[in-house]
Amino acid sequence: MTIDSTQLTFILDNTPAQQNIMLVGKHGIGKSRILEDYYSKKGCKVVTLFLGQMADPGDLIGLPEKNEKTGKTDFMLPYWFPVDGKPVVLFLDELNRARPEVLQTIMDLTLNRKLAGKVLPEGSRIISAVNNGSEYQLTDLDPALVSRFNIYEFAPSVADWLCWAEKAGTDSRIIEFIRANPEFLDGEDFSSEMDGLERTPDRRSWERASQIISSFENIGKNELCLLSGILGNKASSLFCKFVNEKKLPSANEILTAGYEKFKQIEGTLSQASLPELAELNAGILRCLNSLAKNNADFEMPDVRENLEKYFDFLKISRGKEAVSHFISLLDAQKYPDALNFISQQCSSLYRKILQETED
Length: 359
Fold this sequence. Notes:
Layout: E1 2-3, H1 5-14, E2 20-24, H2 31-41, E3 45-50, H3 58-61, E4 64-66, E5 73-75, E6 88-93, H4 100-112, E7 114-115, E8 118-119, E9 125-130, H5 143-146, E10 149-154, H6 158-168, H7 172-180, E11 193-194, E12 197-198, H8 203-213, H9 221-231, H10 233-245, H11 251-256, H12 259-269, H13 274-294, H14 301-318, H15 320-331, H16 336-345, H17 347-358
Parallel strand pairs: 1-10, 2-9, 2-10, 3-6, 6-9
Antiparallel strand pairs: 4-5, 7-8, 11-12
Helix pairs in contact: 6-7, 6-13, 8-9, 9-10, 13-15, 13-16, 14-15
């Protein structure tokens, strides 16, 4: 089975330091970022070693030198080796891209926490990451090495990424596009071929795109050309179309708007068609579900108030059909965390929903 970010956190919390972890997944899904964020909060140093870039074991264990006291060959400590006695998290990235001679060096490290006779500080952890798939140029791993890891297939969910993106300040247009088109977050099926090269959108490329377009209010032809090299032709074209044709406020804007802003939003919503409102209903519940799922202590007065005001707007201005659609999405159990949030923290709205179902 695959694990998402929440399950990975549980695994990291409950795996003893002496047990090694291997994460299997495609590139660009944020394996190293998630680990760095997790352990930095605990005050642990993460050392990332890109094994696929190492030419020989010397890049890992350091250069040989003569020990003048013993007359024997010793090895200079590599730059990353901890000398302060504090445990580290050693993240071995691209493990199955490493040369066979480098992998042999890893054997003693994963079993005994030793590297050329030097022992890692007590409490140090070893976590590796490998890519899996026919599209990668990979090295077969020795079964004896594989047996030294607890292995998990890591596939963080779209909700995981949306939560991270909102906290990281990702451009809101990208967040709303992915919320409406989740298949484009890891869009391996949307390739753009050019002389044998492929450009497909992934989480890493959406982050790069956000850094660039945040300074552009409008997305025109020049911006489209710029984005095509980051996201690929199909994804960038559909994203630009989404941004330029967007008429309704986003779900996030509706849920977090202040009093005056919400009044403006109501005026815009009054012009929306029922199909547009149906799409917005789903977007609001997806957004709320993501917020509630990824924030255990999620309490925002604006969200509670705006959610009820939005429901009242549907009932007063657009009639029973729009309200019934909103309720049907909750009844279908597609957004369980959103339903729990409404039932536990929005008592007034929850009573209105129950009343509507009884009428």
